[in-house]
Amino acid sequence: MTHITSTPAAHGSARAITLDFADNALLPLLLGDHDRHLVRLEQGLGVRLSCRGNRVAIAGDSDRVEAARGALDGLYRRLERGEAVGMSEVEAAIKLADIEDPRLPLADVPAIRTRRGAVAARSPGQARYMETLAKHEMVFALGPAGTGKTYLAVAQAVAMLQAQRIDRIVLSRPAVEAGERLGFLPGDLKDKVDPYLRPLYDALHDMMPAEQVAKRLASGEIEVAPLAFMRGRTLAHAFVILDEAQNTTPVQMKMALTRMGEGTRMVINGDLSQVDLPTGTRSGLRDALETLEGVPGIAVCRFDKRDVVRHPLVAAIVDAYDQRAAAERETRSRGGRDTEGDAA
Description:
It is a single chain. This protein is an alpha/beta fold. It is 43% helix and 18% strand. It has a six-stranded parallel sheet with strand order 9-8-10-11-7-12, with helices on both faces. It has a four-stranded antiparallel sheet with strand order 1-2-4-3. Strand 3 (48-52) and strand 4 form a beta hairpin. Helix 3 packs across helix 4 (87-97) and helix 9 crosses helix 10. The longest helix is centred in the last third of the chain and has 32 residues, at 312-343. The N and C termini lie far apart (72 Å).
């Protein structure tokens, strides 16, 4: 792809460039039906885009033009590799175009490679998380639903298992009732806890063919179990993922963390805004962070609403709840100060 840069505009930091795409067969896939990808990039990045022949012109503020260039370049490279480009990839490109780390150009954003294909970052937070997963033996990942905490951890685990860098994957969650009662669910213990573990099964099936998942589950190479089943064990040469860790108690969390054996990696995921423990019970995830953050060898990744990669409404929902919680904290704080003033 050739970049043709025109003379900058006379005022401010305005700039215009033209991108020349070599493969005319890929260009319709890049632009989308009725140019909808181009329209979304315009809206998301605050630039003007126009296409004529195999050229796309970009105009706007200099930094926005460069962000759009990086987004289009990254999407085009996906197509050159034979990967799909749809609206979800366009949304990811918009988020990644604003990545804060200048050492990480959009085209070089990390990917986790499984035999099913590459799993790419879709937000700056995900890019940092994937780098952290590759470098650290113990990682805490915190943030709202839809940020990919569990999905990317499972992808890293599968990639390492397929590369024979670990012997097995252990996926676990505390079987805590989120407003429902386990005892009323039909079936034996496995039937009762499987619904809690379903997101882990779903992620596995995205990374591997169903028959391979079944085979590895049967052989013990992949184990999916409630947290209580980990007591008394030492897990060596494994990739351990503890999901929904905000619903552990401090005792459970300490028990889980101390299962780590030689050659093992561990990822602990959770959302401290969705604790389902009984009122007054301290979250083991919060306790662990206060105790362990800053310890050498332990990394902490924090996601926020900007990293939500589900339906756009999910980010809006997370934001609305965060705003209400902040307002309630401010009201309580103001009420406390008023009470102190009255007492004085």
